[in-house]
Amino acid sequence: MRSDSTGVPKTMDITRADILNWLRETDPLKLETLWQAADETRRDHVGQAVHLRGLLEISNICVRSCAYCGIRSARTGLERYRMTAAEIVDTARRIANHNLGTVVLQAGEDPGITRQWLSTIIKRIKTETGLAITLSLGERSDTDLAAWRQAGADRYLLRFETSDRALYNRIHPPRPGQTYDRFDTLRWLAGLGYEVGTGVMVGIPGQTLASLADDIEIFRELDVDMIGLGPFLPHPDTPLGSLPPMGPEQVPNDEMMTLKMLALTRLVCPNCNIPSTTALSTLSTTSREQGLKAGANVIMPNFTPEKFRLLYEIYPSKARVDVNNEQFPELIKNRITALGRTVGQGPGRRPDQSH
Ligand code: 5AD
Hints:
Blueprint: H1 16-24, H2 28-46, E1 49-59, H3 85-97, E2 102-107, H4 115-129, E3 132-136, H5 142-151, E4 155-157, H6 165-171, H7 182-191, E5 195-202, H8 209-222, E6 226-231, H9 255-268, H10 278-281, H11 287-293, E7 298-299, H12 306-309, H13 318-324, H14 330-338, E8 342-343
Parallel strand pairs: 1-2, 1-7, 1-8, 2-3, 3-4, 4-5, 5-6
Helix pairs in contact: 1-8, 2-9, 3-4, 4-5, 8-9
The structure holds 5'-deoxyadenosine (5AD).
5'-deoxyadenosine (5AD) binds near residues 201 and 233.
């Protein structure tokens, strides 16, 4: 392991033992050296640009019942919506008019988002705006994913949520009679030529520091293009609506732990696009900037039309932070330049990728 005088590894050869030590570290002065190492790695590998991705939450209909998620199908009393094709294309145009290079179409696992319907929308967005298109639509069939790639989609986000299989199975019940392996899908997506994103939640009840270290090791091995990390935020209308008592190995769902994960992820995946996520920004007024200073290089302003935004409540407080996003992207552009960074232009691909 190479390191500078502060003892922080400068490169991706950081070991699992180092990772665990950092996850246990609480000394703010020592942690400062970790944020700095991640920030330098970010600067050297992906530069000063912060890429903005316009997020569009196209449907909150979901057939799954993930124990953590506020739009799980078992949650009754939540009004459900699916945006129309015209609404989606119009919003994509708005995103392009703000000079952003990417639209992210996100939704629950909604069977009403059919292969053909979405293919047509993807083609329209491509021809009418030229935006890069990222999909984040959960576990879909290989054929759907291939068709959407064919139609022009560029990227797909599918977090594996946690590398702890037992924990994953507890919080993520499969559809009856179906097995699905997100790692298989990530490989399938890469084979189709998508830029691929994954990620985890930090502080899931039952999640241990050792499993977070495994998550980082998996990021390193997977060699994906994008990694999204956010704190687990308990939603009162879900089975995981309250936090368990803290044990010594339980991961806290706080800003410090999320920032540590972000910084370590940057060290093992120096060329990845890593967002400072909305979930992180719910934790304090400065956490979005903290994320940008600890390795992140992407922000995803929310462009979901007002009337749907409150209904896409995967975790609480999201709407509150998103409402602040109303002034996006101008406000966020000012904040980016105030940090001495620049606003990314164009699609903002991972820099070292040729496909
Ligand atoms: N807290 C934090 N993140 C959540 N997600 C879903 N529900 C929650 C929650 N309660 C995250 C998952 C999913 C992404 C779209 O949102 O990681 O992959």
